[in-house]
Amino acid sequence: MKIIADSGSTKTDWVLINDSGETLTYSSKGLNPNLVSEETIQEELLKLKKEFNTDLYEGAFYFYGSGCGSDQGKLKIEEALHKI
Whole domain around residue 76: which residue ranges? Predict the structure, then answer.
């Protein structure tokens, strides 16, 4: 399984590709770590987990987003993911 996120400041588009090659899509709030709190990121990840009915750690997780060019932004996303 793969989860791929394309996140800007206003919207995040998510795609889950399961082991059979089927895809599911979902949209959520933008998760720019420079603009939202770690708690907001966690809330959106929990919604994603519920929407896809899966553990986010089952496979590969790719997050491409505004604000993730710095180590601080990357760390904020990683920490939020590890706390759910």
Answer: 2-82
